[in-house]
Each structure stands twice: as C-alpha cells, then as structure tokens.
Amino acid sequence: MRPSLKESLRTEFETELRRLMGTWFPRCVDREHGGFLCDFDHRWTPAGAQLKMLEYQARQTMAAARCATHAPDLAPLREAAHHGFRYLKDRMWDRNLGGWYRLLDRTGNPLEEAAKHGHGTSYAISACVACYELTADPECLDLAKRAFAWLEDHAHDPRHGGYFVFYRQDGTPILSQNQGPAPNGSRDPIGTPIGFKDANTTSDLLKCFSDLYRVWPDPLVRTRLAETLSILRDRLIVAPGVMHLYAHLDWTPLPDFVRYGQVLRSAHHLLSASDALAGAAEPTTGRVARSMIDTLLRIAWDPRRGGFHLAGSSFGPAYVEDIVVFVPYKYWWPQADGLKVLLAMARRHPADAATSLAHFARLWDYIKTYVIDARRGGWLSAGLDTTPEARRKPKATMWKDASHETEALLDVLMMLDSF
User: Fold this and answer.
1) pLDDT digit string (tens) for 108-128?
2) Residues near 100 by Cβ (< 8 Å), separated by ≥ 6?
3) What is the Cα–Cα distance from 221 to 227, expressed in whole angstroms?
4) In terms of DSSP H, where are the helices of 33-74?
5) What's the whole-model pTM score?
6) How far is the C-alpha of 222 from the C-alpha of 209, rounded, in Å?
7) What are the DSSP E strand ranges found in 252-345?
8) Are 226 and 232 in contact (CB under 8 A)?
9) Which residues lie closer than 8 Å to 276 by C-beta, 6 or more apart?
10) What φ, ψ does residue 379 adopt, rounded to 5°?
11) What's the DSSP call for residue 367?
12) DSSP tag of 257
C-alpha cells in the first residue's frame, strides 16, 4: 500500500469515526433510567418504547469504550462507557441468580419471563473487557469472569461441547417450545429454532472468549476458546466456504438459507480466535477463513456497484421454478464487517494483497456513496442503491446500534499500521 494512500485512508477513517461518535454520543445516553436509548427516527429524533435489550446496551458500551481507548481526548465517550457498564452491572445483571436478562422495559423491569440468552451474553462479556481495557477497573473484569462462570455452570453442553443458547431465568436451557416465554413460539428472540444451536451465537461467543482470554489467560477460557473455534470451523463451515446457521444439539447441521453477512463476521472471528491462541489453530483456520471470503466475493459481491448482498443460497441466486430466491439488499452491518475482514485478508496473504485491497477500496467507496448519511450523520440501515427508502428509515432500533461500523473503523485503523 502506497504511503500516501495509507495516510489518506487513515484520515478518512479517523474523520468518520469521530463524526460517528459525535452523532451517537451523548445523544443516546438515557439520563433518566440508565443505559442507552435505542429508538431514533431518520432525523435522530427519539421515537419508540426505548426497551433495553442486552445486545444493544452491551454493544453501545463496547463502542464507547473502544473509541475512548483509541481517542482519549473524546471525554464524553469515557463517560458513556462508564454509564453503560453501570447499567450492565446494576440493572441487567440478575443479582439473585446471576446471568444477564435479555430484555428489560425502559424503567428496568425484566420482560420475556426474565429469560436470558447466550447471544447477548457474548456481547456483554466483550463490553466488560473493553471497559476494563479502558479503565483498568477490576470491577469490569470481575463481571466478565462471573458471566463466563455462569455460562460454564448453566449453558455449556458437557456431552456434545459448545453452548446451549436460550435459558430460563435460573439458567435452565430452553430446549422445547413449551419451556419458552412465548407459548407455542417456535423460535427464540434472535430467530434460532428452539431446541437447536446456532452459528450466530457460537460465533459471537468465540469472539468474546478471544477478548476475555486477551486480558485473563485462564486455562479454562483457553479450553473453551479452542473448543468453540473447532466447532464453528469444523462442524458448521463446509467447502467451498459457506456456513450452516443451525445445528442439532450434537452439532449435526441443518440446511437453511445462508446469511452472507454472518459468514463475513464469522470469518473475522475465526481469525481473531486463532490470533488469541497464538496461532495454535493455524494453518487450518486461515485456510477456512480465506475460503469463506473467496466464496462470498463470488456469490454475494456486487461487481457493478460494490457491496455485499444480504442472503441467498450457497451458490448465489437460486431458481425455484420461475422464482429467483435471493436477498439483494445491502444492509449496513455486512458492509462494515466486510471492510475489516478484507483488510485482514490482505495483511495475512501478501502475495494476493492487491486483490483484497482492491475489494476493500471498492467497498469503502460504496459505503461512502450509499450507506453513510452525509447530511445527518450515522450510517443508513441499508445501501441506497438497493433500498432507497433507507434514507427515511430509523437511524437506531434495538437491533441497529453503532457497534458494527465502530468496530470496522477502529479495526481498519489498527490494521493500517501493519502495511
């Protein structure tokens, strides 16, 4: 990478990161009830019930903490990270039975019969680690340790390995529809069929174990990190580089639609986990991750405008009689995850770096053109080329926080130093 190009990219990513943080914080801080507000319309006006979902609260906390570490001059971010951690510890953590509630109302009352979930737990652990790295406060690391111990006691599957994903308040895994908080509900709150395991939760648990092991090199954390990596890499990802989203309890996968963004994100988590294990999982992990990116560039990449489409079959558009089955929309978060994994590929494979860097540059141009809201700040929920109505869609919801784009910008800035 030419020094002039690297410096230009660094300036662009740093500028967008600071603009993004100034748009979200302190606007989203809930001064009345704690935590963060999650409902904003396209003009950034608060609008909605402002429920407190664990993923959103944890991701906003993590985004603020990581950016505050990167840019100590941005004092409001440090305050927001502390504010978010206090809410995770004082309101979302179950003081009697342990574990984090999945969903509260705005005033802090548990919903969904106080159910808990591994997906949100993974982000909350990563948020605690990010706050610990920012402040060196042992209280942050202690809460992450307690959450890992809670998962170990209640969610780890001693027979087949890995983790059950959905739990009652006391930690009992919910493995049948009649055990869940929604009578006759066939899926849990993140869409996983009840009684099954999923790649989404498994991949994000892998990332949080990587984060936790970085600051607490405990032997059991290393064991679970290696175990989770092996399950994701060897049981759920298959040639030519696509991923099964759901599996039976024994990790026998079930065929389903491929979420291309989840494949991109999981590829990056595999690489992070391998790095956390000091390369002990190489070279298999690197080869599998590369096959995932190569496949996504073939079946999900838009060669005309750039950007990654959302979902489809393992071979791209599928034809069922005279109907094409393909989801062409380009949601914001796969584009963010695509940025960092493409640059990671360029760094890990210097001989082929030109191809990865070309796609990286094209994707950044796509994001600047179709995803970033140059007028009001923040990122739109989807690219305007496939979803022109995104300009008037909410800037924030329970499932649309600042974490994907924040992580992408920070990770890219860090990786640029190695070129």
Assistant:
1) 999 999 999 999 999 999 999
2) 54, 88, 92, 93, 94, 116, 120, 121, 124, 147
3) 10
4) 54-70
5) 0.97
6) 8
7) 253-254, 258-259, 311-312, 318-320, 323-325
8) no
9) 209, 210, 213, 214, 225
10) -110, 140
11) I
12) -
